[in-house]
Design brief:
Elements: E1 2-14, E2 17-23, E3 27-28, E4 35-43, E5 52-60, E6 67-69, E7 75-77, E8 79-84, E9 98-106, E10 116-123, E11 132-137
Parallel strand pairs: 3-11
Antiparallel strand pairs: 1-2, 1-4, 4-9, 5-8, 5-10, 6-7, 10-11
Length: 144
């Protein structure tokens, strides 16, 4: 599978397309702000009409899982996942890849300033070096 990932201020997946606002950045903050991850997963022809599983997780600059406090105060790793399946539409040329657009919206998250993070995507338990999305948080502004 081929995956394109992009950080954005906001995004939507609608009608098989991605609608992206303020996309393509790699630095946020230092103050918490809402953001989105927009992805286009190209599913090969021979992998259509069967279920796939994706998992996205966040690690820090040392490769350690990033955790946030849950409602009960316990740390929870910042990760998510779900299943998906794409079907071959009638009349599509054999061998054509099939697009699966996906958007994940986030509210403001309390990332410490001056740090580097990386979102890592896995599909069907497989991770590709290109399925990573790095960003850093800005330093605290002095006198602000």
């Amino acid at each position: 599978m081929r995956v394109t990932m992009l950080l954005a201020d906001a995004a939507q997946a609608l009608g098989g397309k991605l609608y992206i606002l303020g996309g393509g950045w790699t630095r946020m903050g230092p103050h918490p702000t809402p953001f989105a991850i927009a992805m286009k997963i190209e599913v090969p022809w021979d992998q259509a009409n069967r279920r796939h599983e994706w998992r996205l997780r966040l690690v820090d600059q040392d490769g350690q899982p990033v955790s946030l406090s849950s409602r009960d105060g316990e740390p929870q790793p910042l990760e998510m996942g779900a299943g998906f399946e794409v079907g071959r539409p009638p009349g599509m040329a054999p061998g054509s890849p099939l697009d699966f657009p996906l958007v994940i919206q986030f509210g403001p998250l309390p990332f410490p300033p001056g740090q580097r993070y990386e979102w890592i995507l896995e599909i069907d338990g497989r991770c590709d070096p290109h399925w990573r999305l790095a960003f850093s948080t800005g330093p605290v502004e002095v006198g602000a």
